[in-house]
C-alpha cells in the first residue's frame, strides 16, 4: 500500500519525521515516567514543584550521560536481523513509523487519564509487533523468525521487578517503622509545611537516586531508537562504529571460525541465512567495505551465534565459542556517539520538567486508602532506585513506573492501611493490555506499510 524506495525523497522525509518522533517519545517519557521520581518530594512539600522537576531533570540527564548502552541494544535486538539492518540499505521506514507511532500514542493515551503506565512496555510491545509483522509479511514461522529467547528475557525482567519492588519496599518500610520512631516519618503532609531536617533530606536523596537510575535505564532505550533512525537516514556514515576499524580487519577470520559452528547446528532453521552471511564476511576486505551490507551480515551471524549458544545439542566448548565471538562482533555495529547520548539526555530531562501533576496526584493519594507518608515514599524510592540502577548496568530494561507504583503499594500493605483496589485495578489493566495492544497495532502498521 505504501512503498518507500531506498533514499527516495519520501523515505528521507519519513525518516526525518521518525527522528522527531523519537525525540518527542523521550520527551513524553520524561513527563510520564519521571513523575514517579518527583512524586514523593512534591507531595510531601520537601521541594517546590519547579525545583523538584528541574533537579530530577538534571539527574535524569546525568544518568543518561553516565549510563551504558547495554539496555539500548538489548531492546534493539528484539528485532529480526533483516529488519534491524536491511541488507540493501533501505532505511526501513515502515519499521520506524510503526514503532514510534504505536509507542507514542499509547503513552499519551494513558498519561491523559492519569494512569501510571510503562514507556518500556510501549516500546517493547511495538518492537515485538514489528518482529511479528515481519514474520507475517514473509510468511515465516513465528517460532523461527522472532527471537523469543530475548523477548522472554526482557519480559521476565519487566514482570519480576515490580514484585521485587512490592516486597522490598514493604519490607523496608516495616523495618523502618520498628527502628525509627520519628512521628514525622509516618504522618501525611499537612498544608504546605515541609518535613523537618533529616526526613526532608532523605526524600530529596531518594528522589535523586530514582531520577539518576531512571535516566541510566530509560535513557538507553531512546539511544537505541535514535541509532536505528540515524542509521536509516545515513547508513554509509552510521551503520558501523567509526572507532571499530581494527574490528573490521578481524571480521573475515572470525567468520571463518564460526562458519563450521553454524553449519553443524541447525538452530531452528536459521542456518541458511547465517551461513550465507558468514560466507560473505569471510570475503570482507577492510578497504572495500559496504557499511550497510557488513552491518546486515554481522547481525545475521550474531543471531545465528545466539542460537548456537542456546542450543542444548551443542557442546559446552562450542556454546562458549559462539558466545565469545558474538560478543567480539558486536562493538563493530553497537555503539552510540556522544551527541546521541546528549540528545537523549536533553529530551528526557526537559520532558521531566512538564506534565508531572497527573501522575503525582495518583501516586500520592490514589494508590492506598490513606495519603502517602514520607516513610512510605522514601522506602518505595530507595528500593526502586536500587532495582532500576542494577537493571540498567546489567542490560535489562525495567519499568520505573511499575517498580515505584508497586513499591508504594507494598508500603501501604506494610503500614496496614490497605490499598485502593480501584486504582490498582486500572494500573493492572494498563499493565496487562499495553503489550497486546501495542503488539497488535505495530504489527498491523508494519504489515500495511510494507504492502505494495
UniProtKB/TrEMBL annotation:
* Pfam families per UniProt: PHO4
One of the GO BP terms on file: phosphate ion transmembrane transport
The molecular function terms of the Gene Ontology recorded here are: phosphate transmembrane transporter activity; symporter activity
- Please give the start and end residues of each transmembrane region: 54-79, 91-112, 118-137, 157-176, 196-215, 222-240, 338-356, 427-449
Q: Does the keyword ATP-binding apply?
A: no
- Entries under InterPro entries matching the protein: Phos_transporter (IPR001204)
Q: Does the keyword Transmembrane apply?
A: yes
What subcellular locations does the record give?
Answer: Cell membrane; Membrane
What's the protein's topology in the membrane?
A: Multi-pass membrane protein
Report which reactions are catalysed by this protein: phosphate(in) + H(+)(in) = phosphate(out) + H(+)(out)
Sorted UniProt keywords: Cell membrane, Membrane, Phosphate transport, Symport, Transmembrane, Transmembrane helix, Transport
Q: What start and end residues bound the annotated signal peptide?
A: none
One Gene Ontology term, aspect cellular component: plasma membrane
Superkingdom: Bacteria
Q: So what family is this one in?
A: Belongs to the inorganic phosphate transporter (PiT) (TC 2.A.20) family. Pit subfamily.
Give the protein name, as stated in the record. Phosphate transporter
For this protein's source organism, the top of the classification is: Bacteria, Pseudomonadati, Pseudomonadota, Alphaproteobacteria, Acetobacterales
Amino acid at each position: 500500500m505504501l512503498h518507500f524506495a531506498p533514499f527516495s525523497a519520501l523515505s528521507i522525509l519519513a525518516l526525518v519525521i521518525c527522528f522527531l518522533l523519537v525525540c518527542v517519545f523521550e520527551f513524553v517519557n520524561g513527563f510520564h515516567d519521571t513523575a514517579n521520581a518527583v512524586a514523593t518530594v512534591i507531595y510531601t512539600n520537601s521541594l517546590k514543584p519547579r525545583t523538584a522537576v528541574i533537579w530530577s531533570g538534571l539527574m535524569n540527564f546525568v544518568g543518561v550521560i553516565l549510563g551504558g548502552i547495554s539496555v539500548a541494544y538489548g531492546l534493539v535486538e528484539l528485532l529480526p536481523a533483516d529488519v534491524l539492518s536491511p541488507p540493501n540499505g533501505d532505511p526501513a521506514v515502515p519499521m520506524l513509523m510503526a514503532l514510534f507511532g504505536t509507542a507514542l500514542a499509547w503513552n499519551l493515551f494513558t498519561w491523559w487519564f492519569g494512569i501510571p503506565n510503562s514507556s518500556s512496555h510501549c516500546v517493547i510491545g511495538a518492537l515485538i509487533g514489528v518482529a511479528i509483522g515481519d514474520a507475517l509479511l514473509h510468511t515465516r514461522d513465528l517460532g523461527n523468525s522472532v527471537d523469543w529467547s530475548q523477548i522472554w528475557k526482557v519480559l521476565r525482567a519487566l514482570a519480576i521487578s515490580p514484585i521485587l519492588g512490592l516486597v522490598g519496599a514493604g519490607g523496608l518500610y516495616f523495618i523502618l517503622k520498628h527502628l525509627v520512631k520519628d512521628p514525622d516519618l509516618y504522618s501525611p503532609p499537612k498544608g504546605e509545611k515541609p518535613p523537618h531536617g533529616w526526613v526532608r533530606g532523605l526524600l530529596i536523596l531518594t528522589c535523586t537516586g530514582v531520577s539518576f537510575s531512571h535516566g541510566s535505564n530509560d535513557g538507553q532505550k531512546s539511544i537505541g531508537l535514535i541509532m536505528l533512525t540515524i542509521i536509516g537516514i545515513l547508513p554509509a556514515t552510521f551503520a558501523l562504529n567509526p572507532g571499530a576499524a581494527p574490528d573490521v580487519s578481524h571480521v573475515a577470520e572470525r567468520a571463518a571460525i564460526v562458519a563450521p559452528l553454524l553449519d553443524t547446528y541447525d538452530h531452528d532453521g536459521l542456518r541458511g541465512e547465517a551461513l550465507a552471511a558468514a560466507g560473505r564476511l569471510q570475503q570482507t576486505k577492510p578497504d572495500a567495505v559496504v557499511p550497510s551490507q557488513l552491518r546486515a551480515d554481522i547481525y545475521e551471524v550474531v543471531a545465528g551465534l545466539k542460537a548456537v549458544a542456546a542450543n542444548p545439542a551443542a557442546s559446552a566448548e562450542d556454546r562458549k565459542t559462539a558466545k565469545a565471538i558474538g560478543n567480539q562482533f558486536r562493538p563493530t555495529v553497537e555503539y552510540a556517539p556522544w551527541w546521541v547520548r546528549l540528545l537523549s539526555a536533553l529530551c528526557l530531562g526537559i520532558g521531566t520538567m512538564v506534565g508531572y501533576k497527573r501522575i503525582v496526584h495518583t501516586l500520592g493519594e490514589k494508590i492506598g486508602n490513606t495519603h502517602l507518608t514520607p516513610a512510605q515514599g522514601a522506602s518505595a524510592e530507595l528500593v526502586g532506585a536500587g532495582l532500576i540502577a542494577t537493571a540498567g548496568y546489567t542490560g535489562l530494561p525495567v519499568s520505573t513506573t511499575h517498580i515505584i507504583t508497586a513499591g508504594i503499594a507494598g508500603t501501604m500493605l506494610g503500614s496496614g492501611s490497605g490499598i485502593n483496589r480501584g486504582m490498582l485495578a486500572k494500573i493492572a489493566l494498563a499493565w496487562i493490555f499495553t503489550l497486546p495492544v501495542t503488539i497488535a497495532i505495530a504489527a498491523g502498521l508494519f504489515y500495511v506499510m510494507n504492502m505494495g
